[in-house]
Amino acid sequence: MNLKESASSLVKDLLGVALLLVFLLLFFNYDRITTSSFIDIPTSIVNVNTIFISIIIEAFPFILLGVFVSALIQIYVSEDTIQKYLPKSALGALFPAAVLGAIFPICECAIVPVVRRLIKKGMPLHVGVVFLVGAPILNPVVFASTFYAFRNNPTVLYSRMGLAFILAILIGAIIYFIFRKNTDQLKWSRDELVGKQVTQVITPQKKRNRVKQTMYHAADEFFMMGKYLIAGAFIAALFQTYLDRSILQALGTNEYSATFVMMVFAYVLSLCSEADAFVAASFANNFTTSSIIAFLVYGPMVDLKNTVMMLALFKTKFVLVFITTVTVVVFSSVLLLEFFIL
Predict the structure, then answer these.
(1) What crossing angle do the helices spanning 255-269 and 289-301 adopt, rounded to 10°?
(2) Residue 215 is assigned to a structural domain of this protein
(3) pLDDT of 103 over the 50 cut
(4) Which residue of 64, 83, 113, 142 has the fewest C-beta atoms within 10 A of its own C-beta?
């Protein structure tokens, strides 16, 4: 890494840490500051701070889980193992990937580093995408929270889980056909590229302590992912505070606009998939059932803070195609669900 890259990385790290410290100070010292006659903080700024801190507190445990799982994959799972257990057929691997996503209790906050690590280990891009969009919805924790939030309307639960499973496979297939000629869509740092070349020609003579290696990789990825989470949470907090929800709610009078509005809400609010069902339930009296389902399916697949993280780890073209694909597929499928089933 040259001097310019080192300086740029240092500036980004310092800005992320400074942003977090400023909002923590405001959060813990709000009462003291508001009683002062010298400082008058607008309510909107306090609201931004509160939402920002709540997103950070909600997401950090899952980021920790994600980077720890990512580190375990890095140390204990070899490229040969992934190639051995993946079906040889490109499209045939989609269904097992969707089933695998239903096993792990990983939300959208944690799934990005896990998928990135799996792809680096040799998992095909389109299979990683299935895991990326499916796991945050299909896991047991989300099933339980959705069941509890909509225990009087089980249609929402089964529609959410069924759509997530089918659409994860469909989105993975679309990504396969779009990027099958150029599957390398990750951003690689210079250190990673050098390390990749070195490991191809040099075999270590002595194995390092795997526990230490795991902790090292987890800490490294946590600080890398954390700064992008902070940036995404800050942007989401700004949107939640200054976006005029009454205008969007007025648009939710018919099926098309209601579905679109709820998808916008899901993207902007950037809720954790383990908790979004309770927020969705609060909209049940104002929006249609199908638009609520759109909120619950689209949000865990694509949201504002996830977009920031993905832009840092994947090529911009891939992220834009991914978001467009997910948006079109979810919107179309929810409308079909409304017309033929609900």
Answers:
(1) 30
(2) no
(3) yes
(4) 83
